[in-house]
Specification:
Number of helices: 3
Oligomer: single chain
Number of domains: 1
Number of strands: 0
Structural class: mainly alpha
Strand content: under 5%
Distance between the termini: 38 Å
Helix content: over 70%
């Protein structure tokens, strides 16, 4: 990390209350946990995972194209 981004991050952390910092950390941990669960499911059975999520990918791509 560059020195500039470190100082920016520390300024933002100081501006947040302790409760806000904990909420932010909690959200990051939830995102990491969800990512790791999906990664594990994919590694255990890639074909089943892809089939399960295939429909949501198609519906998302249709929404983006209809704009």
């Amino acid at each position: 990390m560059s020195e500039k981004s470190k100082s920016k991050q520390s300024k933002q952390e100081k501006a947040m209350s302790r409760e806000e910092q904990l909420e932010h950390e909690n959200e990051l941990l939830r995102l990491e946990n969800a990512y790791l669960k999906k990664l594990k499911a994919f590694q255990e059975n890639p074909n089943a995972y892809l089939e399960k999520h295939k429909q949501s990918w198609h519906s998302n791509s249709k929404k983006k194209g209809s704009n």
